[in-house]
Design a protein that fits this description.
With 246 residues, the protein is α+β, with helices and mostly antiparallel strands. The chain contains 5 helices and 12 strands. The chain has 2 domains: 189 residues, BirA Bifunctional Protein, domain 2 (2-Layer Sandwich), CATH 3.30.930.10; 41 residues, SH3 type barrels (Roll).
Length: 246
């Protein structure tokens, strides 16, 4: 198992409602970045309140910390986490099989292998705490997934290594610590450039479905705020939140 990163705490639970909920309960007392991992979850959730299936043998983990960041800076950690996930997964599968799907998924051979969920709390210009939930299908492909934009897959199903969740967590924690250090020293521009190098369908036609409308265009980039930028018949459009289809 990888050496655990210095200055980072770890909590391993047998079962919990969700690691995100546990992170919220512990957040006020957190004094150092803390990873919370559970062997099983009874009420896991994904983006926009969707259920997240968590069969035993997959990774269910949340990093909670106090980043001294504005809400927009806190939101940029989604891309920090995506880069770390990409780096960690590339140890276990060929890197060319992986791609990052805006805003918060990792694809493996075209299927969804991992997802990221951010939550924060705070008033005014600074968040009190930030939690980054990460689910990775290591051994099992979840069944009965409803309204999935991309069919789920797993590391094992795609021919990757069979890895224990606790071991993958160590790989991921080290990768995240390295990416966070890059963010703090070089800024979001560096994180953005790294993310774009591994982005799915960059330069191709995709569709972004928001709560109000559907926009189709060429995936041009993500901007300095992490918005999806499409080139459409009406010009360049920056989209802060949407589900992406291609």
């Amino acid at each position: 198992m990888d050496q655990w990163p210095a200055g980072v705490a770890r909590v391993i639970l047998d079962s919990v409602d969700s690691t995100m909920s546990e992170a919220a309960r512990r957040a006020a007392q957190v004094t150092t970045p803390t990873w919370i991992m559970a062997q099983s979850q009874t009420a896991a959730r994904g983006r926009r309140g969707r259920a997240w299936m968590t069969p035993a043998g997959n990774l269910n983990a949340t990093l909670v910390f106090k980043p001294q960041a504005s809400p927009s800076e806190a939101a940029q950690r989604s891309f920090v986490a995506a880069n770390a996930l990409f780096q960690a997964l590339s140890i276990y599968v060929p890197v060319e099989a992986l791609a990052l799907k805006w805003p918060n998924d990792v694809l493996l051979k075209g299927g969804k292998v991992a997802g990221i969920l951010l939550e924060s709390s705070g008033q005014g210009g600074c968040v009190d705490w930030l939690s980054i939930g990460i689910g990775v299908n290591l051994r099992h492909t979840p069944e009965a997934v409803q309204d999935a934009t991309f069919a789920p897959t797993s590391l094992k199903a795609a021919g990757g290594w069979d890895v224990e969740p606790i071991d993958f967590l160590a790989t991921l924690a080290n990768a995240y610590a390295a990416q966070e250090a890059l963010y703090m020293t070089k800024g979001f521009g560096h994180i953005r450039e790294s993310w774009l190098k591994n982005a799915a369908r960059l330069g191709e036609i995709i569709t972004a479905r928001t709560s109000q409308t559907e926009i189709t265009g060429i995936f041009d980039t993500i901007d300095e705020n992490g918005n999806l930028v499409l080139i459409t018949g009406a010009g360049r459009q920056a989209i802060p939140a949407a589900d992406v289809y291609f």
